[in-house]
Write a structure and sequence with these properties.
Shape: globular
Number of domains: 1
Largest sheet: 9 strands, mixed
CATH architecture: Roll
CATH superfamily: Bifunctional nuclease domain
Low-confidence stretches: 144-149, 174-180
CATH class: Alpha Beta
Strand order of the largest sheet: 6-5-4-7-1-2-3-8-9
CATH topology: Bifunctional nuclease domain
Number of helices: 6
Number of strands: 9
Mean pLDDT: 83
Length: 180
């Protein structure tokens, strides 16, 4: 398992789909995850320290967890199946850890509010992480077989659509930000 940080939220110019870009804390690997527009907004609002007049759904959920005597401990992007990312929230209650299945976008929205660590399983990184070419700033998507990922033909076919989507993203300003 590797620790991640939210690097940015992007919009594909091809289909206006939102993608959150996670960056491995101690490496140059990135993990792009598709998310919905409302979840993207919920994450962005908190990352940009925008104050809203009433609590958003993720603020309410965090408050409810705390009022019930528990706390958010961490979140993990734990799987990638059939073109869908899976996550779990780790909640601490009375020194006991509990795992709650959730969408990565919801877990990320809660993570930025509670300032908890974000992790990704090695198997997810093996399947879907990218590295940026130092010269061009474009993503390099490796073959999963090169990285030891085991996938059947159907998963490989679906992943090719993911690779095409990632290749369509504009990472130029991300490279500039890192060199600043």
């Amino acid at each position: 398992m590797v620790e991640m940080n939210i690097d940015s939220i992007r919009v594909s110019l091809m289909n206006y789909q939102r993608v959150v870009i996670l960056k491995e804390k101690d490496s140059d690997r990135y993990l792009p995850i598709w998310i919905g527009p409302s979840e993207a907004d919920a994450i962005a609002v908190k990352l940009q320290n925008i104050t809203v007049p009433r609590p958003l759904t993720h603020d309410l959920l965090r408050t409810m967890i705390e009022v019930l005597g528990a706390s958010l401990d961490s979140m993990v992007v734990c799987d990638l199946r059939n073109d869908t990312f899976f996550a779990k929230l780790i909640i601490r209650s009375d020194s006991q850890l509990m795992e709650v299945d959730c969408r990565p976008s919801d877990a990320l929205a809660l993570s930025v509010r509670a300032r908890i660590p974000i992790f990704a399983e090695d198997s997810v990184m093996d399947k879907a992480s990218i590295i940026l070419d130092k010269e061009t700033g474009k993503p390099i998507v490796h073959d999963t077989k090169e990285r030891g990922g085991e996938m059947d033909e159907e998963e490989l076919r679906r992943l090719s659509a993911f690779k095409e989507f990632v290749q369509s993203l504009d990472f130029d300003d991300m490279e500039k930000k890192e060199n600043a």
